[in-house]
What we know:
Chain A is of the alpha/beta class. Chain A has a single domain (8-167), classed as Rossmann fold (3-Layer(aba) Sandwich).
Amino acid sequence: MGDRGRRMVFVTVGTTCFDALVKAVDSEAMKEALLQKGYTDLVIQMGRGTYMPSKVSGSSTLQVDYFTFSPSIADYIREASLVISHAGSGSIFETLRLSKPLIVVVNEDLMDNHQSELAEELAERKHLFCARPQTLREAVEAMDLTALQPYEPGDAKPVVTLINKFLGFPVG
Amino acid sequence: MTCTGGHTAEMMNVVTALRKDRFTPRYYIAALSDNMSLQKAQVYEQSLVRVEADKEETLENAQFMQIYHSREVGQSYITSIATTLLATLHAMWLIITIRPQVVCFLFKVLGLGWSSIFYIESIARVKKLSLSGLLLYKLRIADPSIVQWLQLQQKYPRANYAGRLM
């Protein structure tokens, strides 16, 4: 990691359990697709999941490593050439803030699945790509990174101005 | 730990932009199962202490509490009934012990008193309000509800839109 010429794919599930995503990226077909796209390393942050991917080392093929949690997820995102993330807003906006290409994978096993709303809206605005575990490989094969638009970060000040106005504080 | 990482970031963006002399003291309340949110709030409040000269006063201006979570992500609806009841009782206990101004919240629910409750809907809600957001909006408890997407404001016209927090 960090070497010249290495292109790392970072997969993150945050604090959730999302084995379907880990399994999807651990498949031979997926690793082949990532190699085809020129990536050299796959690092998986697997959270509370129980499915263990297989570690692979050696220079001739895609290198695979994984871990459960890390306090420095941002460092991995910064190092990555592509981020594949669960649909949590924390992971999504952290990746967009660091201007990294992002594929968000929606977890369809969640009971109250509102998560796809955010990913689909941001995909429509071309800030990221959105997939399901079973469509991830096609998304990787089809993705065109030049189609992505940078995300303009939000600003809390107008919201605070609104709150101040409602409370009768002088605005400013 | 729950899916609170994103919500905490949104909330902290608001707190950072608030004028601290107007909004004092500040109570930070997070779920018992959430190990990270209060830590982030504490780090932020500590950073204020370093900026401001009057050290002791600033630390007293912030308090940190934990509360039972009404429903964890993925929990079934059946067991949710018991945990929601527990969380509600715990929340009421905290409201009673914190201070009178917050008790106004209860009067407000009963339609008696006045208080200000700002509900900011999560940025993750693009098309529909969350259950809490919908309750506060429909019962007109929040004044105002703030949403982070224009299309959501159009669907709920009494809500306010003032851009996004993230």
